[in-house]
Structure prediction request, 358 residues.
Amino acid sequence: MLTAALRIRVRAGVTSSSFAHLCWYAAGAGFAFLIPFAFTSALDLDHDLYYLIYFASAAVFLAAYALSTATDIVVLFTRNWRWSLGLGLLSAAFVVFNVLNREDSTPRPDGLYFVFEIAWRGAAYGVVDALLLTAFPAAAAHGLMHGRVDTLARRALYAPLALVLVAAITATYHLGYEQYREDGVANPEAGNTIISVPALLTANPLGSLIAHGSMHVTAVVHAYETDVFLPPQTFVEEKGSAPAEVQLGEADAGRTVDLARGGTLIVALPSNPTTGYGWSVGERTGPGLDLVDGPRFVPAGSTGPVLGAGGTEVFTFQAASSDEGDETAKVELVLEYRRPFEPDVAPLQTFRVTVAVR
Prediction:
């Protein structure tokens, strides 16, 4: 995406003042929040159109930064490149393993569009994210240190400085997406820290681009509908009829399930009312699911209630009927396990699923 900028070789090293790098970094953090907030949260654009806007605007911003601060892009991506590449392959292996083991397989497109999505939502999106969230703050940290990271002592200062800048812009970027304003940014912070290790240790973000791109490609192939790795969350319009009844339990937390319009969703979760805790519908549950029964406590075993024993709380929801043709409505269902007399205390457990009503 940044071919023109990458071919610009200005003066060797970094000659712009530390203040200029700091100003550009602050502007970049604001830019990183504004783009997803405006085009996904506010305008709710189609994800592929949003990526086009994001890629183009990020390319312009990063090229302007490199030109304005006289950052030598060639040096940035060639110094210590072997070490960065090696660390990048290790980081890539870790994040790919994480995607495959953390996320259940989800429906995905097929045909030529799937090939396009691997390149667009996978490789291109991953590389642009890495440029903005790792390469840019790493270059800014290098500039703040006047390009002097040759000694062991200077590198020991560079790594934590770059990490702080990476963490801050990672947070502002992900807070631009509605899903992370609700769920927090702990997961993307942890993931991008691992992805940024090559840049932090070598001052070269090449390996981080490889790791981030690998993570996105794996997520597109394995968990296209993920709500963690590929914001904004996107769903596949599957052929065939959705089931009229779906039953879920504790092990289904985090899943995305299909449900026919007007269909029934039954959720059964372990509970022990003698502790004072009980399940209730969370305030963040979206419209489109009506609670028609419950929570209803069912004691464990067949001998009836036993003092102090637990059981299961059962909720029955009905999906709203719709006149919107074939359009799928995505509803997030949030159930919280808490004591009703402690409204200001965080729930002990949270059960969350996404229901695609179609």
